[in-house]
Fold these 3 entries.
Entry 1:
Amino acid sequence: MEGERLAKFLARAGVASRRDSERLIAAGRVVLNGAVVSHPAVLVGANDQVAVDGRPVAPKRTRLWLYHKPAGLVTTARDPEDRPTVFANLPKDLPRVISVGRLDINTEGLLLLTNDGELARFLEHPAQEFARTYRVRVNGRVDDSLIANLGRPQTIDGIRYRPAETAIDHRQGANCWLTITLREGKNREIKRLLARYDLRVTRLIRTGYGPFRLDSLARGAVAPAPVAPVSALRRRYAEHRGKTPNRSSAGYPPSSAAGRRSFSPSERP
């Protein structure tokens, strides 16, 4: 039988991450052709009907958006501390989306949003080495030796970090602005790397992710990803999946998408 594993299908449809899709299935919330499914490895064919919590999961075009995240928002659907979240502050007319990775509550700048969980996973995966570029304001002494040290692999508290491409932009008294590019983006990576050299991060802005740039996108605004970099991404994503890009998909990687933000337990892979 040809088809796609159910958990993967749900992730690619933007319902939830693959892991959270497995939880939805285990909880008996997923129905395939009228029957409740209990195993995530069940295959879904082109003519099969899938629903979650009684809501059909219908194939739609994969989409990608750029979001200028303000400081003060948590990148999660629900916060146990009841802090403001990214997803509660998105435009109401935006389809249900998940984020490509996270930004810390006080980190600003570019956050990619998509309706395709598998695309998000592809963009996040360290093996793809998509560059994450940040402007960083630090307090403390910055010199050429710091740049050289950050350009080497680091191990901090047993966690290994790849070299960080770093450049000094300009100084403002005791503060200094840096541009730092990462190829992996582990949790709080920049703050941990700089803390090792007694530098305190006082502002952190992500300005780029892979081929996408924040540029002049207003704080809190959402915009469709530009066609040219999306087209390049579509080809790379299709190669990753072992398929020929579908030219009818208007520059986006072919996939499925769900409706509005309605399924739980997670908005993020």
Entry 2:
Amino acid sequence: MIDKADSLLDAPVAPAAAAEAPPPAIAVVDLVSVLDGRPVLDGVSFDVPRGKTLVIMGPSGCGKTTLLRHLIGSMRPTRGRVELLGHNLGELAERDLEAVRRRFGILFQSGALFNSMTVAENVALPLREHTRLDAATIDVIVKMKLELVNLRAAANRMPAEISGGMKKRAGLARAIALDPEVLFYDEPSAGLDPVTSAEIDQLIIDLTDKLGVTSVVVTHEMDSAFRVADTMVMLDEGKVLRTGARQEFQLLRDGPPTGDRASDLIRQFLTGSSHGPITDRRLSGGYADDILMAAGRAGRPLWTGWR
């Protein structure tokens, strides 16, 4: 007779169910944005996992800035949806949207400091506006945030007295003042020298690691993009050409042309080459037709010969 306990021990053990992945910090689903009758974003979709850094890139006019505005809730989709920290931004009332906005920070391209305030006062501003903390506690938090961006020594200086890179760091200290869960960066290395740009990139990496935040970086600076990114999204003419891990884009950048138009367009952008699909498209943009049409509207022939 087989003992019941033995039979249970001998029975095959079912594998443990895989733990469900946490929902992404940001989910963009079939986003369409139409301005003045023209689609600026057309079916854009991607996710940003929690604690990771996504870089959004693409040629000028591809829709990066419009996409960033949708991600922070300052524009509402024509169609599709943007979900941030579990909230569909397009469905939120303004009061609820303000509550969500307190959970993320933004580093603007110029730093966007108030010139009439010291560096410390700029960093303290969101704490004074959105918390009930006393002045002494706010002062301690400001010093901690400035220390994180290596700027505590400049706390009492005015924005006009500090460099462009220091303004970016001060803006970043203000962006993290409320301990956000998500950070958005708009061209964080624009206008900076290579060394300062690398320092800002390292700050982005350090803050993502130390604070566990999810980061979204909009940039056209490829050195910075490849330093900070976990994943990348390439936009072109309002559409997503490709989304993937940084390593996938590195392989595309370093490899030869493939003959595939989308891949070669991305490769041209990543390498900064003056030859490729982006350049070909600009050169075939109907310049001659535009000139002929303009001459016709002016009521005169385009060419009357030398006189």
Entry 3:
Amino acid sequence: MSIKQPFQRNRVYQGTFLAYIDKNICGEVLFLRRKDTDKKKRLSALFPSIEKIKWLAALILLAGIICGSYTLSRYVAGEQVKKREAAVIIDPGHGGQDPGKIGVNGAKEKDINLEIALKVKKYLEKEKITVMLTRKTDEGLESAGASNKKIEDMKARVHMINEVKPRLVVSIHQNSYQTEDVKGAQVFYYVHSSEGKEIAESMQEILRMLDPDNKRKAKANDTYYMLKRTEVPTIIVECGFLSNWEEAEKLTDEKYQEQMAETIAKGIMENLKK
């Protein structure tokens, strides 16, 4: 009688499971194990790619945040520049030890300049226009021990203007002449400034509203320090002649100063619209 030998079995461990596998199918099982190992290798190779994707996504997000912050900072800076560009500087000429012209009625130019400038500032600020004055009191801008006070004062005014860089500068002055009959407000601009010329001509026309008989025209100049050295459009408004009795009396009258200031403010606002 033949005795059948039992199938030879091998133990194969896979994970936590124990299986008794027939020797005849052991080769197939080993093949499956190799496939399983290859799959794990492919998965392990895939994970670094996923990590790279995560890092790339994080970098893109960070770049977006930086770009957004930069854009916001540029927008804020742009708004500040716009506000700064809207600023006007009013320069009351002379001051302190420099009285300017002395009128036939004894009036000092420096005092009239300051009074009109303060009133122009008031009218402009009512319209929400940012205004700066080169001086607010009867003081020059020179230092106490300056050897040449006039030159240092002018340099200080020009330095302030070039630092702030307003859209427009209006320097307030009063005129004078050898004969009493000469009168009338007049606007000066730098000869090489086309923009200054346009603003001066516009201001001259608006000033005619206050004095229709004034036939003066805006005039180019290449010697005034304020016009030559400033880096923004600058005009000088000579409000009248202190050598003329009629105008000297008007220019010391507060009501007329208000009218002059309001007219100059209208001229400034008209030019800021352009």
